[in-house]
């Protein structure tokens, strides 16, 4: 992505700009005053800082640097100083015990593209308004998760929607699997459309046909935005690029505008037809949280445009993260057929074949739960949280970290720490089970995939339930296996959410 952008500009123009920029940086560097010892780290190069030392696998490079420099280290990404935190206790100390000091988001140029710079997740300044915004979103998700099911034996609307979509996906997989035979199918396409439908159902109470053109265009836009966003942006690390034309950023802005139009249309429909006694989806739940605002002006709530933004964020957050979790789960299931057999055994014992798996099966299926935690830990497919930044000057673990410093939380390192896991490279769901076969909560707490503390993911419960229902519905009805001759590769390339390499699966109905 960086190179792609660089080559889009004339070489001589860039050279002059970079020279001026590096001189400025050198001058500024001498002026930087500190009030204590800064965190240690590798010596940065002029202009590029430590970017070249990061290579392609940033999470692995920063994990290796921790061996030399410890849990609190500092690198420079271009001109941006980044403090990297590793080690479970250090991360917990920062995000939980000193949570407010680490609860900000850096002023990244690419973050400002999202929701016109007023995104709760990416750009809103940490403070009272942000705390209220997050609380409203959390309460809206809670309100929605308590909404009654419409017309089935499900315990709630959320369960009804997720179970229905999981079944739809399994039927489609079966059909395609039958046709493909030994050649197998790529499960990703169906996973994308199924999870997109769950998100549409949760946010807007709508389910789309898999071939609906509006639906497919939204799915594509979301995938494209994430792809561009995940590639990182030069303008975040070299501020001068904010003032130069960037084809990828322009494309991202266009995609985001189209996405916003779709969202705004749906949300307007909801505002027009809202009925407090019938909460249809998360959008209704958000409107309900804010409905009193006109009567009680003292009570701060969200404006209509903030409601729109909140729905966009929940929509975006619960999409790619879940699809990727399911892709990894399926890869591990075909890589380790004996583990798949144990999950199937648990489904047969607990659920049987006469009904679909439900939310309340989860606590009674510790092996399946342990498998999901081991997928999160081993793949660590969200290697860092969204970048944080300090909200005040702070002395942390003996090091001075100035206000507004960008902070990366290395979730990958925590999930592969020898001291916690002993054999972090082995894929062993059993590690999460106690001797009596229950889930070891003390250990599952140490799996880092949703962040922790004030900025912790809002949808972690939703996500774990959704992945549980999709996987158990799949294995209740189908056997999945590797296709002949296919090497299964568990490695991945660094990104915001790291995808497995493409693979195909062979599908056979059970029984
Ligand atoms: C397996 C699926 C998911 C994973 C791995 C995941 C992971 C994460 C991570 C790592 C963060 C950043 C935490 C930080 O910055 O410290 C985050 C934030 C967030 N997630 Fe999730 N997430 C998932 C699903 C969801 C779902 C389903 C929703 C909505 C229903 C959601 C809503 C959010 C929101 C709103 C934030 C922003 C929180 C903030 O900035 O304070 N996520 N998530």
Automatic annotation (TrEMBL):
Residue positions binding heme: 457
Compartment annotation: Endomembrane system; Endoplasmic reticulum membrane; Microsome membrane
Keyword check for Lipid metabolism: no
Essential cofactor(s): heme
GO terms, biological process: hormone biosynthetic process; progesterone metabolic process
GO function term, MF aspect, one: iron ion binding
Keywords: Endoplasmic reticulum, Heme, Iron, Membrane, Metal-binding, Microsome, Monooxygenase, Oxidoreductase, Transmembrane, Transmembrane helix
Topology of the protein relative to the lipid bilayer: Peripheral membrane protein
Pfam families: p450 (PF00067)
Enzyme class: oxidoreductase
TM stretches of this protein: 6-28
EC code: 1.14.14.1
A GO term from the CC aspect: endoplasmic reticulum membrane
Enzymatic reactions: an organic molecule + reduced [NADPH--hemoprotein reductase] + O2 = an alcohol + oxidized [NADPH--hemoprotein reductase] + H2O + H(+)
Similarity field: Belongs to the cytochrome P450 family.
Role played: Cytochromes P450 are a group of heme-thiolate monooxygenases. They oxidize a variety of structurally unrelated compounds, including steroids, fatty acids, and xenobiotics.
Protein name as annotated: Cytochrome P450 1A
Annotated source species: Triplophysa tibetana
Taxonomic lineage from the root: Eukaryota, Metazoa, Chordata, Craniata, Vertebrata
